[in-house]
Amino acid sequence: MTETIADEELRARLHFWRAKGIGPGSVRRVVEHFGSAAAALTVSDHALLEAGLKKEGIDAWRNLTPDAATPDWQWLQASPQHHILVPEDPHYPALLKRIRTAPPVLFVLGDPTLLNDPQIAMVGSRNPTQGGKENARAFAAHFATNGLTVTSGLAVGIDAYSHEAALEGGGNTIAVVANGLDIIYPLRNRKLAERIAAQGCIVSEFPIGTVAHPQHFPRRNRIISGMSFGVLVVEAALQSGTLVTARHAMEQGREVFAIPGSIHNPLARGCHHLIRQGAKLVETATDILEEIAPQLNVWLQQDKSPQQAALPLASNLSETDEPLDPEYALVLAALGYEALPIDQIILNTGLTAEAVSSILLMLELQGLVAACGGGHYMRLGPGNGN
User: In the chain, what are the domains?
Assistant: First the structure.
């Protein structure tokens, strides 16, 4: 539900949003010019033109039936898991609100509070190689373990592997789709969509009943990048739609990361192209977490929810801040101030390799541990963490 504006105003915005030719800018101009969308329902075409709307959009809006937005309203009322957000809503994603083409309406299925959690977008090929699948799962699992919400597009391939790994890692994931939320697309991801709706949320700017269409995906992609601090391209061909998401990210001032691959792999060429265009080459999840940590820290200081404030980042914590979790303390105690191989750390602690890897990554972000290359780690002394 939305409680930030009156029902009449929400209905008016939904009505405007259903008119072809009326985009985010048009709705924003209507609200700013007339004080509300509801107030604009009775004004003349001339007044709408003065507000900045185009004749084509006004004509399309005039031709809508009075009950055009009824499906949206009925969907909203059908379940407590159904939400429609407008920019005034506290759950509307703050980062997305800053982009020029921020949607005036967001339909959300699931938990809308996740929309303002720190997010990293993961995108890539619909037909990835085995290596691409493994990379997507490994990176997403690390992000989820370290408190980042994984955002993607619910497509088959890299998107699906990223969502699944985030859920399996006990983290959060958000799917942004190019259709109305009463429709599952693609159908083969129905079970995954149900899991995401139950444990995370699914987001769309498209009204109820809208079917997926090729021209909708670039619009969807700007939301994926717009909600995130950075976009990781796992694997992509040169002509991949994935590169559209990367372009949106660059235009929005977001970080773009790309995983390199073999020069003989056609699905690595898109990543190589992005790297030549300025994307950051990454080999591990740590590369990304370290890169975005300063931005995340600034953001957390500006807007700290309980979930957000709990995210451990390099400059937020020091060795003397708070007692470490027992397993974290165990790993830290097993390290000296000289490089130690990870296999030795596993032997010294008795923990699983997966647990040690995850804890080392977290300790590295906290500035307590440094990766020395070749699978070696060392403890950092006071004052040497950053």
Answer: 95-102+106-290 (3.40.50.450), 317-379 (1.10.10.10)
